[in-house]
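Attaching the record inline, Q. Sequence:
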Amino acid sequence: MPWLIAIMSFSMIIVAAAGLALSNTAGAIARSAEHRYSVQVTDGARALPGVLSALRGNRDVSGVEPVPEADMRTTLRSWLGAEADNPDLPVPSLVNFDAARGANLAAIERQVRQAAPDATVLAHRDNLGPVLRSLRLLQLLTLGLVALLAVAAAAAVVLAARGALDTHRFTIDVMHGMGATDVQVTQLFQRKIAVDALVGSVAGALTAMAVLLLFTASATALGELAGGLRLDMGDILILLALPLALTALAAWVARTAVLAALRQAL
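Structure, as predicted:
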């Protein structure tokens, strides 16, 4: 059983770490886009100076950053190829800005449209909505996987406890004949299974932590991506608590299974 618990503990921590990292990433993306907006100007060459002046003159607006035309053409090159560099191709201008908390966005949009009637104000959070929903779905998936692994670990404990009961049936009968109660016999099995579960869960947890450290410290491109998925101190405490929670679950399941089996046998 310790080997089975070690495998479950290893898998739970890896999956839980991925879920927590995804949660942190989704939160960071949502916070960064919460007050971030863009202004798209069709006739940028003529109207862009007026749009910049309107935005910079509004006290609720900060971080006004016009996107260079070269960057826009580089982006279009992904779809249009070399045609994106054609000087006759009209490229709209784009200006990014941050709105203060509680800012009147309608008033900001009116000021922008006074300078450029065809300008469009876009919220970054609307564009990132599908990405955030996908991240939330992945978080729910990792949570479900952790729950399934816990159920599998509980099932393994039940099988181990019942197997131990069958193996030591004669010894248990002798103990009952000497006056031992079902609770006393159950405590012996519970203590042994709890120790095995603790050893297995800690071993699996240490292996998982080593793998996570190696993964995030890797110099490969995948490692650099994983390095961006950060875990804060609260997340680390949750991961450290998982082996203890798995041990407590194993001890409780073992007590329940053994006690029920003994009473059923009587």
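The two ends are 27 Å apart (CA to CA). The mean pLDDT is 82.

More tomorrow.
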